[in-house]
Each structure stands twice: as C-alpha cells, then as structure tokens.
Amino acid sequence: MELLINGKKMELNCDTAFEVRDCIGKPQDIVILNGFQIEENCRLKENDSIAVIGKGRLPKREELESMMVARHTPRVHEQLKKGKVAIAGLGGLGSNIAVMLARIGVGQLLLVDFDVVEPSNLNRQNYYVSHLGMPKTEALKIQIAEINPFIKIDVRKKKVSEANVKEIFSGYDIVCEAFDKAEMKSMLVNTALAELKGIKIVSASGMAGYDSGNRIKTTRVMKNLYLCGDLENSAEVGRGLMAPRVQICAGHQANMILRLLLGIEEV
C-alpha cells in the first residue's frame, strides 16, 4: 500500500496506523492520521497521510514540515510556506501575530520595529524577563527559531516613516499593521496602499480594556484593506491594554492573514 509517511511516499505492507508506527517508530510515539491525532488504531486506505512523531527531539527539516502539515488541513501548508508577510510593530499585536504565523508555517516573515523590550511590555507582549533590553526584532527572531527554525526571518530595526514604506515593505504579499499610535497606523495604511501595487493590509483598531471579546471582529474596509478590533476601545486613562483582548485581536489579524494567503478574500 502506498502511504505518505512523515512527508515521504512509501510502500509498506501495513494495514493499520499503529502497524506503521511500530514499523518506523516506537510504541509511545504520537500518530497523526490525515490531520487528526488518533488514540485508537485505525485501518488505512491507499494514499493516507501519516505522521509518527517522537517526543523531545528536533526532526529534520522535511520531517518537521510533514509533522506540521499533519496537524493542518491537507494542502494548506504548501501554500503557506510560499507566503511572505511583513509585520510592522512588534508590541502586543505584532509579537503575538508573528508567533502565530510562525506556528502555521508561513515561509517568510519580515519583523519591523525600532524599540527594545521593556518591563511594561510583559503584561501583553510575547516576551520574557530574559529579553529585557534586547531589540524586539532580535528577541522575537530568537523565539521563532525555537518554534520553527526552518522559516526565513528578516528583521529591520528601523522606525517606519512615509519616506521608507516602499523600501521596507516591497516584495511582501501582506503587510500587517500592528502599531500603537493612530497616526502611525494611518500613515502606514495610506502610504502602503498608494505606493505598493496589489499589497494587502491587515490592520487593527480597538482592543483595549476588558469588554467582551465577542465585540472584536474582522471587517473588509475596502478591496485590499482588512480591519480587526471593536473599532471603539482605544487605550486611554482608566482603560489600558491587557493581554486577553489584545491577543484576541492579534488572533483575528493572524487568521485573516492565513485566509488571504489561501486566496480567501471575503470575510
């Protein structure tokens, strides 16, 4: 029977998933059959996809990719690893978005920020005490390498301005706007739409405080612009930025980027 095992086509004389596991791995290994982790043995069909995952070891590149694919929807990973996404701003939104995109296997990420990690960032941003004082670009690049060492990461430790938007973001499919200040958000969105032909932008507005997370949504504002958030709750005195709603909004942005990379443009 021909099967796809850890990303490679193989002919094995096995009728069940656990027979494959016992043939190439160990009894304690995890078995994922056609995207779903199984606890009980299953009979196999021609061209089934199986991943046998050993715990606590770094697999080879092609094996890691096949194991990630095993947990995704079939054929999604091939599209994602061709994707090129730029993230402008690596704070509460951008740092979490970058990690999500790394976990789903987006092939190339550009991390753009001029700041360093400060103690106040730890309440909602994807950094740790060990990162304090480091440039956010470098701290995040190190983390992503621990999650998926095989994707390409470019960094730009630079403040974005109207004059350098085209130079920084040219060549990317999607720009994820993740700035804190409204004027910076507006500048990036307007300049990118005007100067980068065909670029898609996923932006955010309104995720402060602790209102219901159900108020955060994704809206298609125009052809190439998507906006995530509740569009109301900006940070101000008495209403700070807190991890739950910030990360819900970051999840919306990351999910919209995923959909766009898969060619799904309607919300």
Biggest beta-sheet profile: 7 strands, mixed
Number of helices: 8
CATH superfamily of the largest domain: NAD(P)-binding Rossmann-like Domain
**Order of helix and strand elements from N to C terminus:** EEHEEEHHEHEHEHEHEEEH
Work out the number of β strands: 12
**Strand-residue fraction?**
15-25%
Rounded to the nearest angstrom, the radius of gyration is 21 Å
Distance between the termini: 41 Å
The CATH topology of the largest domain is: Rossmann fold
Architecture of the largest domain in CATH?
3-Layer(aba) Sandwich
Q: Helicity, in percent?
A: 25-40%
Query: In CATH, what is the class of the largest domain?
Result: Alpha Beta
Q: What is the domain total for the residues? A: 2
Low-confidence spans: pLDDT under 50, at least 5 residues? none
Mean pLDDT: 91
- Structural class assignment: alpha/beta
Strand order of the largest sheet: 8-7-6-9-10-12-11
**What coarse outline follows from CA principal-axis ratios?**
elongated
What does this structure look like?
InterPro entries: ThiF/MoeB/HesA (IPR045886), ThiF_fam2 (IPR012729), ThiF_NAD_FAD-bd (IPR000594), ThiS-like_dom (IPR032726), Ubiquitin-activating_enz (IPR035985). GO terms for molecular function: nucleotidyltransferase activity. This is Sulfur carrier protein ThiS adenylyltransferase ThiF. The chain is of the alpha/beta class. The protein has 2 domains: 2-72, Beta-grasp domain (Ubiquitin-like (UB roll), Roll); 78-261, NAD(P)-binding Rossmann-like Domain (Rossmann fold, 3-Layer(aba) Sandwich), CATH 3.40.50.720. It has 8 helices and 12 strands. It has helices at 17-24, 61-71, 76-80, 92-104, 136-147, 165-169, 182-195, 243-261, and strands at 2-5, 8-11, 30-33, 36-37, 49-53, 84-88, 108-112, 152-156, 174-177, 200-204, 217-222, 225-229. The protein has a 7-stranded mixed β-sheet, sandwiched between helices. Strands 2-1-5-3-4 form a 5-stranded mixed β-sheet, sandwiched between helices. Strand 3 (30-33) and strand 4 (36-37) form a beta hairpin. The protein is elongated.
